[in-house]
Amino acid sequence: MKRLLRAGLLAVLAATSVQALDIGQSLPAIALADQFGKPQDITLATRRVYFTHDMAGGKLLKAALGEQGQAVLDAQQALAIADVSGMPSVIRNTMALPAMKKRSYRIGIDVEGKAVAMLPRQPDAVTVIELNQLTVTAVQYFVDDKALAAAVQSAAAGK
Q1: Which of 7, 95, 148, 157 has the most CB atoms around it within 10 Å of its CB?
Q2: What pLDDT, in 10s, does the model give residues 14-59?
Q3: For the chain, what is the domain count?
Q4: CA distance linking residue 156 with residue 145, whole number of Å
Q5: What is the pLDDT along the chain (159 residues), one digit of tens a residue?
Q6: Considering the domain boundaries, does residue 127 fall inside one?
Q7: Do 111 and 104 contact (CB within 8 A), yes or no?
């Protein structure tokens, strides 16, 4: 009986797991709402995605974008995206979303984790995904605020 349950659980996990995107693969167009409930879509024009999925990554991105966050993102044709599906709804609604509304940039938010399930991620990191017409051209992970800030500034300068 235990073997049957274990086999069934493994089959369900395998069927529901999503393979992370890699270089050369196409990212499907993703439609999300930002922290103000306005549409925030990844489209053919999107060149860069800053993706966070935990509190540590969110703090790194906030520090790297600074007070000029939205202007920096716009100059790069970039979007900030957050997967908050792992956060308890009480915390998300009473603490996280109000805090996100104070950010200097818009954040596309996936509450269920389904729309961004294919985005690559590492613990405590910001994932930076470079795109060319929704095709992934590069993926980098940043766990250091200075390295992320340098990458943001370099991209903003067009390098």
Answers
A1: 148
A2: 333 457 788 999 998 889 999 999 999 999 999 999 999 999 999 9
A3: 1
A4: 16
A5: 445 434 443 333 333 345 778 899 999 888 999 999 999 999 999 999 999 999 999 999 999 999 989 999 999 999 999 999 988 889 888 888 899 999 999 999 999 989 999 999 999 999 999 999 999 999 999 999 899 999 998 887 765
A6: yes
A7: no
Determine, yes or no, domain membership for 4: no
H or E element that contains 108: strand 107-110
Q: Which residues pair with 127 in a beta bridge?
A: 51, 141
Answer yes or no: is 13 within a domain.
no
Tokens of 57: 């990554």
Residue 133 resides in a domain:
yes
Residues in the chain: 159
Q: Say if CB 38 and CB 151 are below 8 A apart.
A: no
Residue indicated by tokens 């613990």? 123
CA-wise closest residue to 18 among 6, 28, 32? 28
Report the CATH number at residue 55: 3.40.30.10
